[in-house]
From TrEMBL:
Domain Histidine kinase: 241-458
Xref: InterPro entries: HAMP_dom, HATPase_C_sf, HATPase_dom, His_kinase_dom, HisK_dim/P_dom, HisK_dim/P_sf, Sig_transdc_His_kin-like_C, TCS_sensor_his_kinase
Species this chain originates from: Ilyomonas limi
Protein name, entry field: histidine kinase
SMART domains in UniProt: HATPase_c, HisKA
Catalytic activity: ATP + protein L-histidine = ADP + protein N-phospho-L-histidine
One Gene Ontology molecular-function label: phosphorelay sensor kinase activity
Length: 461
């Protein structure tokens, strides 16, 4: 079912229920009010008749008939009867001769017990009234047809039915129009979204000046498009750069093999070619391994095994690892502000991935530092664990700092040094998986400081 029809039916149902409650309440109160009025009229008539009967020496039956015929003129088919204490009818009057009502002994007894009972007889309303002030215990029966009251009630019922039906129809029509107006922005948004594709991600949904839910939806969708455009752009640059980086050693290998096969050569010449090809293959292997690590770190923590590990133990592996990578590299560990509670040194993460991220940062620090030394500091406070890596290299200009986390991006003053430009993007993704943050500050000519912040395991939600 279309949303527009659902909104229309929901709006109509609400109005239907409200009108039902309102019309029913109006009719109920009008009906009970009419009953109260006729009951009061009938009791007054019964009191009048009871008073006249107690003055039988003044008012005879003929005079009482004239008086009864003149009272409660608005009511038709009046019937008035009186019964003595032995339930004998001692007085009767009716607008039409022979029109009488029969009261049972039980009803007469109930009237004497309750002083009055109200009931209906055919289309008439009647009251049996016991005037306990009279000497003979007379019960007066007064009955009549409330012609005017019933006519007014029927008119009211007709008006309420017409209002109810008309209100429901108007509610349905207005609900249909209202839903169309309400959903018009959604249709407009959907039409504009349909225009957007991978080739037109720069298109944005136009929003009005109003600050409402539709504007919030449009803003949210535009923010989503911004993130998608950025992701597509990163992916495009990554694929382009990866293809370029992969093609360089492959082209070198292909060229060397092609040249070596053009003519017969000495064994030593073939050996030199094979050594060169071997170096290119190693370079290609390193790049492929780096890309695989990058792809792994591009996932989420849900697909990676995470465990408790001590951050100081991870850092202790760095000196030996750097010497293994290059004998000229050295690492200076400085553990400052360590907590008394060793539990604050634990983080929740993947040991190999986290070590790979920190190793990349330290390796860069050693590679770009003049003295091939990286200073690694560990500090723990109430905000979490902070690992800072400092080098004494050339530094990075402020304009280039914003691009260093893009895959394959390399600063201008560092391009002469071998590398792929995947290290820092890889580090950022690994740290993000561990719910941490990475910040870089640099001064050209003095060096760079990379700060990795990680949450303590017991506060990590």
């Amino acid at each position: 079912m279309a949303v527009r029809i659902k909104i229309t039916l929901l709006f109509t149902t609400i109005v239907f229920l409200l009108l039902s409650l309102l019309c029913s309440s109006i009719y109920y109160f009008a009906y009970t009010r009419r009953l109260e009025n006729i009951k009061a009229h009938l009791i007054n008539q019964a009191l009048t008749t009871s008073t006249l009967l107690n003055e039988s020496n003044i008012f005879n039956q003929q005079l009482m008939n004239k008086i009864d015929s003149a009272t409660i003129i608005s009511m038709k088919d009046k019937t008035i009867q009186a019964y003595n204490n032995v339930n004998e009818r001692i007085y009767t009057y009716s607008d039409f001769p022979g029109d009488t009502l029969k009261l049972s002994e039980d009803m007469l007894s109930e009237a004497r017990m309750k002083n009055s009972i109200f009931f209906t007889a055919g289309r008439k309303e009647a009251v049996a009234f016991y005037a306990n002030k009279n000497k003979e215990g007379i019960v007066i029966l007064a009955a009549a047809f409330d012609e005017e009251g019933n006519r007014n009630l029927q008119h009211l019922k007709l008006i309420l039915w017409l209002s109810f039906i008309g209100g429901t129809v108007i509610a349905f029509i207005s609900g249909y129009i209202f839903s169309k107006i309400l959903l018009q922005p959604v249709k407009k948004i959907a039409d504009e979204v349909n225009i957007i594709s991978a080739q037109s991600l720069t298109h944005r949904i136009k929003s009005g000046k109003s600050d409402d839910e539709w504007s919030y939806l449009i803003k949210t969708l535009n923010d989503l498009l911004d993130r998608l455009q950025e992701s597509f752009e990163i992916q495009r640059r990554f694929i382009s750069s990866a293809a370029h980086e992969l093609s360089t050693p492959l082209t070198s290998i292909s060229s060397q093999l092609e040249v070596s096969l053009q003519r017969n050569r000495a064994v030593e010449d073939y050996r030199l070619v094979m050594q060169s090809v071997y170096q290119d293959v190693r370079e290609l292997t390193r790049l492929t391994q780096t890309l695989l690590e990058f792809a792994t770190a591009s996932g989420t923590a849900g697909g990676i095994e995470l465990n408790l590990l001590r951050i100081d133990e991870v850092l202790m592996r760095l000196p030996a690892e750097m010497i293994k990578q290059d004998k000229a590299y050295s690492v200076k560990l400085e553990f400052d502000q360590l907590p008394e509670d060793e539990e604050q040194l634990f983080v929740f993460g993947n040991a190999e991935l986290l070590f790979s991220a920190i190793r990349n940062v330290v390796s860069n620090a050693c590679k770009y530092s003049h003295n091939r030394l990286a200073k690694v500091r560990l500090a723990v406070d109430e905000t979490g664990i902070k690992v800072s890596v400092e080098d004494a290299g050339k530094g990075i200009s402020e304009s280039e700092l914003k691009n260093i986390f893009h895959p394959f991006y390399r600063a201008e003053n560092n391009r002469a040094i071998t590398g792929f430009g995947v290290g820092l993007p890889l580090v950022k993704r690994i740290i993000k998986i561990h719910k941490g943050q990475i910040a870089v500050s640099s001064v050209v000519g003095k060096g760079t400081i990379v700060v990795i912040s990680l949450p303590i395991a017991r506060t990590n939600k």
